[in-house]
Automatic annotation (TrEMBL):
Xref: PROSITE patterns: ODR_DC_2_1, ODR_DC_2_2
Entry superkingdom: Bacteria
Name under which the protein is recorded: Diaminopimelate decarboxylase
Pathway: Amino-acid biosynthesis; L-lysine biosynthesis via DAP pathway; L-lysine from DL-2,6-diaminopimelate: step 1/1
A single GO molecular function term of this UniProt record: diaminopimelate decarboxylase activity
First and last residue of the signal peptide: none
Active site: residue positions: 344 (proton donor)
Cofactor: pyridoxal 5'-phosphate
Amino acid sequence: MDHFALRGGVMHAEDVPLPVIAQEVGTPVYVYSRATLERHARVFRDALAPLGDVHLAFAVKSNPNLAVLKVMQREGYGADVVSGGELMRALAAGMAPADIVFSGVGKTRAELLLGLEKRIGQFNIESREEGRELAELAAEMGVEAQATLRINPDVDAGTHEKISTGRAENKFGIPLVHAREAFAELAGLEGLNLRGVAVHIGSQLLDLSPLEAAFEKVGALVANLREAGHNVTHVDLGGGLGVPYKAGENPPSPAEYGAMVARVTKGWGVHLTFEPGRVIAGNAGVLLTRVVRVKRGGNGPPFVIVDAAMNDLARPALYGAWHDFEAVEPSGERMTANIVGPICETGDTFARDRECDALQSGELAVFRTAGAYGATMASSYNSRGFVAEVMVDGSQWAVVADRIAPETISDAERVPEWLE
Ligand SMILES: *Cc1c(COP(=O)(O)O)cnc(C)c1O
């Protein structure tokens, strides 16, 4: 459930009519709903209540905007970060270092050091090499890094191949067959408190069974490690729960997910961490755009050319992803259209042969479910600058990320003297 709905024929974000935002900030612009973020944060937390005291770490990569992180911080969430930049954002949003989990297959030495200096709560180690390096750095600093070993359970998440992370051929985690050996080596290192295991098999999962299969494997590994004499106190079950992008898509609810986790982890006797991203932020944002013009006369349906493009919302170009597309002030008439951006790439296509609200030049529309993996994937391709972001809270709203003009980006560029 979200807070983007028609009122008196005009789409609102909570109590704010979207045309007001378009008028004052311009388009394209991402619009986030605080109430929706909070609702999702609470629904997810409530769904896990039967598990007792769990740690919730919002996956910052899904939406790293500082205002969004602040909402999550106020809801009691920590952060799952995958870079030094995300780590600094989580701290800037007021998250406690102890509530920060550092994931990612390519943490640099500088990033490991940063995490140690900030005394973050947990490193999810993705290779023996990384574990050794982290242990060495921590020992030099005279501290102990809290860590889990990320394993690759080799299950097919049944999601898009580019967001699947838990198959043997993916770069993430340590293959299960090597997990015991790797754990034994790293657990013995000074500077490291290897206290458990982590798993994350992919994103936009629409079925619980791959997650359940992965968690079963984690449970067996925990038992194994304990038999081998290791003290296993923490397990991180990652993120990955899908959201509905289009009618008919019925991802498992957080409650169903929570019930499955409770069943599978019964008796593990560990402290659990979760890293939800999309399920919190996805439906809490829309990308508001204006139709530049409608181009007719080709072979197929007309092209509705909007002022948002693949540089602002990459998911359709990247994954062939579907985003519902709706007029902000629908007339009631419908059309079939190809919805495209202005960028000089055929890939800059949001939808083909889409049945949607009839739209004309100058009218406003939204791409829904754009709150996760939206603005954060933006680029300045075609020298379009970076899209602005707004957060709505009831009847108030604020710009939470300025639009960055193409000139600001080119200001950072230089023509060397020898070219002048
Ligand atoms: C991306 C990612 C997440 C969040 O995934 P969602 O599908 O957005 O919930 C969690 N953990 C790790 C390690 C990730 O890479």
